[in-house]
Design goal:
Blueprint lengths: L10 H19 L7 H19 L13 H23 L1 H6 L9 H22 L1 H16 L18 H15 L6 H4 L13 E3 L3 E5 L1 H16 L6
Antiparallel strand pairs: 1-2
Helix pairs in contact: 1-2, 2-3, 3-5, 5-6
């Protein structure tokens, strides 16, 4: 018994996915609903990749040539991988958004799903735009991963120009002074010193994340900004 599988049989699935994508975008980007940015972007990308994998064969077929069942099965497996990646992003959205870059280790699952996502995006790009964009994107990715000059030091180090991070902060202040443009230093005037234990009520997680603020911290930051703006002799 031979296995019969034709891409035209997947047209109803394509229709459903396209409708879901349209409704999803209208609901969340039209202001009707709010969700985490990682979930929004991940779901959008997943639905787009599903459509590409369903509609565009892995290679260009000659006129009258029929596509075999094996490439279609491969595409279905890639669709399953894309869905699994989005499910993982949905489950780990809080951890991903709160992770301290260059401080907290990336897990093996992060590496697996992250690598899979990059490869899926490159494959979808190859099918829709051709090899040139894949080669250019791959070159940038390779440089980011293996380039010996691609360093992103923290504020505890000087950059290649010999400047500290604080030098740029001071340059902003000086530019405001020269051009008579008010500079509001929220860190200095908000009173939220992150290492002070009494300020942990404003932090996302006092044990693991003293960089990001919680809603109460953002409220205090917003109030600080409002009162700073009210001191300016403006009419608006």
């Amino acid at each position: 018994m031979s296995l019969s599988l034709d891409r035209s049989l997947l047209k109803p699935v394509v229709t459903v996915v396209a409708i879901v994508l349209s409704l999803f975008q209208i609901y969340f980007t039209g202001g009707f609903g709010v969700t985490d940015a990682h979930i929004l972007r991940g779901t959008h990308l997943t639905l787009i990749m599903i459509l590409v994998l369903l509609l565009v064969p892995s290679r260009k077929l000659a006129p009258g040539e029929k596509e075999g069942w094996f490439p279609i099965l491969i595409d279905l497996a890639l669709i399953a991988l894309a869905i699994a990646i989005n499910v993982y992003v949905f489950q780990e959205a809080d951890n991903i958004s709160r992770r301290l870059k260059y401080v907290e280790d990336v897990t093996n699952l992060d590496l697996f799903y992250g690598t899979g996502l990059v490869l899926l995006v490159l494959e979808a790009t190859r099918r829709t735009s051709g090899w040139p964009l894949v080669i250019v994107s791959g070159s940038f990715l390779a440089y980011a991963m293996f380039g010996d000059t691609n360093v992103q030091p923290s504020e505890e180090y000087q950059n290649s120009c010999g400047e500290w991070f604080s030098d740029y902060v001071e340059a902003v202040r000086q530019a405001g002074s020269v051009w008579s443009v008010p500079v509001i230093d929220l860190y200095a005037v908000s009173g939220i010193y992150p290492l002070l234990e009494s300020n942990s009520q404003y932090l996302n997680n006092a044990q693991t994340d003293r960089l990001h603020l919680n809603p109460k911290g953002h409220s205090r930051l917003g109030a600080t900004l409002v009162y700073q703006l009210l001191t300016l002799p403006c009419t608006f």
